[in-house]
Amino acid sequence: MSLPIVYHPDHVTPLPEGHRFPMAKFGKVYERLVRDGIATLDQFHLPQPAALDHIMLAHDATYVRAYCQGDLDARAMRRIGFPWSEQLVKRTLTALGSTLLTAELALQHGMACSTAGGTHHAFYDFGSGYCIFNDLAIAARWLRRRGLVRRVLIVDLDVHQGDGTASILQGDDGLVTFSMHCAANFPFHKQSSDFDVALPAGVEDAVYLATLAKWLPDLLTHVRPDLVLYDAGVDPHRDDVLGKLALSDAGLLRRDQFVLTSCVQHATPVATVIGGGYSKDLDALARRHTLIHRAASEVWITMAA
């Protein structure tokens, strides 16, 4: 069997011309995976949209219904950063479904990768920072509700702190949050993850990777998770317009290889989401996002050997 990868055409939905969020990157990630020979068509799994009762495991029911019905006020939508549309609702539920399916496939096969996900700025009763519902928190609680896991470790390496995830899961025994991010970046009011590592601006590959190596193996040993949910955001890259760290492509690839290899060495299934990444050069950004799939494909081969 080949590495499972989850994709749906509805990961992309129209936004107003000139909108800052690079929505088209999700389709380009799929194109790059196929065009560059990283994945073949038989590796892709098609998700179903997430059900509202799944979302309500981590979010306020009033907020969930108001968003899905288009009843959120303009201020709440401005905080999210998107204009409301029925297409956006469809996209939101489908991307959530992708994370849920990826987590399920990871438990079945040891590893699986989404081509979307990482909406870690969504809080219990409001969205923020282009994040409407928190797929990481939802997936962790959904798997536990089904009795598939007892302990989940969320490894968030997006350049921005996973503030919504930390807030939703604070004090939730067995669902452990780890965020390694740039201190001088959004959100400017940080939440308390179970474990936070705040890096100064400008950190490059060597320091970043050494810091991660000090934390992750011990976390896997200490937490003993049944699953790792890995947010492989590429916005720590030196060319990211919202970043402030200075990783190279090679550094990001080594980061992903280290995370996945560490999980395999600890016999821990791992599900990946692509997280944040911002650039006007969508082709370069898409290639950057496929680094996690490249790394996973390499580690997958060692798993099968």
Mean pLDDT across all amino acids: 97
Share of helix among residues? 40-55%
- The total of helices stands at 11
Largest sheet: 8 strands, parallel
Estimate the global geometry from the Cα principal axes. globular
| Percent range for β-strand residues | 5-15%
User: What Rg, in angstroms, do the CA atoms define?
Assistant: 17 Å
The arrangement of helices and strands along the chain is EHEHHHHEHEHEEHEHEHH
Distance, first to last CA: 12 Å
**Structural class assignment:** alpha/beta
* Strand line-up across the major sheet: 2-1-3-8-7-4-5-6
Low-confidence runs (pLDDT<50, min 5 residues)? Answer: none
Description:
The protein has helices at residues 25-35, 52-55, 61-69, 74-80, 86-109, 135-145, 163-169, 205-223, 249-265, 282-289, 291-304, and strands at residues 5-6, 44-45, 111-114, 152-156, 175-182, 195-199, 227-231, 270-273. The model has no long low-confidence stretch (mean pLDDT 97). The longest helix is centred in the N-terminal third of the chain and has 24 residues, at 86-109. Strands 2-1-3-8-7-4-5-6 form an 8-stranded parallel sheet, with helices on both faces. Helix 1 (25-35) packs across helix 10, helix 5 crosses helix 6 and helix 9 (249-265) runs parallel beside helix 11 (291-304). 43% of the residues lie in helices and 11% in strands. The protein contains 11 helices and 8 strands. The chain is α/β, with parallel strands linked by helices and 305 residues long. Helix 9 links the parallel strand 7 (227-231) and strand 8.
